[in-house]
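Reminder to self: tokens first, then the designed residues, so the page reads top to bottom the way the pipeline ran.
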């Protein structure tokens, strides 16, 4: 992958992984992730979020959960985008209890989805309802 003495960095690998996953080449995306690790490069929260979102988008939720676990094992903190991808994927699979658990974990860590519902008393229920609606679980 190197040419003219240019060596890919973590950002380059993340971009390549994103492109592979976006076009449905999940195995290739995983291979580039493995290559990145073998070169001694550390994935960032963006790298893991790309992997999680890409696998969720293609219906491979278990892979997304593995990457989420790997991310946490390496001490990389998920952000709101990472959690949103997981919660949406879980809702699409109708794994509502797990989706709610991740939502509660977000709240516990002070990571709240940026949805503007004003000062409504039950904002949490509205946010979960939004995820369920977007995932097609409710109409």
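Designed residues (139 positions):
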């Amino acid at each position: 992958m190197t040419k003219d003495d240019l060596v890919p960095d973590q950002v380059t690998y993340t971009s390549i992984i994103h492109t592979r996953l976006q076009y449905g080449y999940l195995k290739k995306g995983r291979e580039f992730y493995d290559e990145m690790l073998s070169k001694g490069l550390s994935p960032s929260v963006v790298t893991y979020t790309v992997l999680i979102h890409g696998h969720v988008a293609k219906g491979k939720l278990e892979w997304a959960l593995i990457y989420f676990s790997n991310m946490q094992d390496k001490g990389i903190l998920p952000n709101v985008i990472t959690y949103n991808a997981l919660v949406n994927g879980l809702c699409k699979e109708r794994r509502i209890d797990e989706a709610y658990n991740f939502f509660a974990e977000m709240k516990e860590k002070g990571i709240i989805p940026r949805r503007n519902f004003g000062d409504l008393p039950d904002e949490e229920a509205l946010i979960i309802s939004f995820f369920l609606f977007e995932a097609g679980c409710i109409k």
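Residues 10-22 form the longest helix (13 residues).
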